């Protein structure tokens, strides 16, 4: 069973809605240890002084911020602690906004906000109001001594809470090289075919149909090697030739999709029966 990572209340005008916050994502990653090749001995990393090469004990290490090359300002834990935001147990709603005004690029981490004891009615009120209005709530709250900007929105039967990046953390597109030339407008025929291709590939998004195939292959490899199977490395596949003719590529893509269409339609009818 999942355990809550935080408990507090959503502050909604004069209404307080007690909640518990749970992680909504369980990331699947494979962690490897570094080992010595000849005997599999585990490698331990040491903290070593860059100037004389000696190992430094944990109690002799302080935090420093580099203000210029090789020049640091040392900050003590007490100085940092004095700057922590005042701890509260509130998710304070600051405003409501249209959902499409929040670009997904601002989303950082997501959680489920579950109603605590006695909060079912007020929780349901906020959830229903957000669902009916089509809006999201923008809020601030403190988690682990850090203030976060957050968005509250309907997520199935629950409220989803997502921490957000602040505006100055998102890279302005003007800082990027190779921005598309606005003068490079597509030809009418190419645009029509692109729209047809999009329509042909359109379907309801079902997250469960996609899997982390690389993770599955790595875990299969580990299990097979642990069982004593010898694995032969596969030859590297060469990338195909680069497509130059955009129109021809669109025509070929549409033809390929249309070939598959009858089979897809057949499967749909089978499911309907």
Q: How many individual helices?
A: 5
User: Class of the domain at 6-26 and 84-169, according to the CATH hierarchy?
Assistant: Mainly Beta
* CATH fold assignment of the domain at 6-26 and 84-169: Ku70, Chain: A, Domain 2
Helix content: 25-40%
Q: From N to C, what is the helix and strand string?
A: EEEEHEEHEEEHHH
Largest sheet: 7 strands, mixed, barrel
Separation, N- and C-terminal Cα atoms = 38 Å
What's the β-strand tally?
9
Question: What is shown here, in short?
Answer:
This protein is an alpha+beta fold and 273 residues long. The chain is 27% helix and 26% strand.
Write up this protein.
With 273 residues, the protein is an alpha+beta fold. It is 27% helix and 26% strand. It is built from 5 helices and 9 strands. It has helices spanning 77-83, 120-133, 188-200, 213-226, 246-272; strands at residues 6-12, 15-23, 63-68, 71-75, 90-98, 107-115, 135-143, 146-155, 158-164. Strand 3 (63-68) and strand 4 form a beta hairpin. Helix 3 (188-200) packs parallel to helix 5. The model is unreliable at 266-273 (pLDDT under 50).
Q: What would the keywords be for this entry?
A:
disordered C terminus, 27% helix, alpha+beta, Ku70, Chain: A, Domain 2, two-stranded antiparallel sheet, 273 residues
Question: Helices and strands in order, then pairings?
Answer:
Elements: E1 6-12, E2 15-23, E3 63-68, E4 71-75, H1 77-83, E5 90-98, E6 107-115, H2 120-133, E7 135-143, E8 146-155, E9 158-164, H3 188-200, H4 213-226, H5 246-272
Parallel strand pairs: 1-5
Antiparallel strand pairs: 1-2, 2-6, 3-4, 5-7, 6-9, 7-8, 8-9
Helix pairs in contact: 3-5
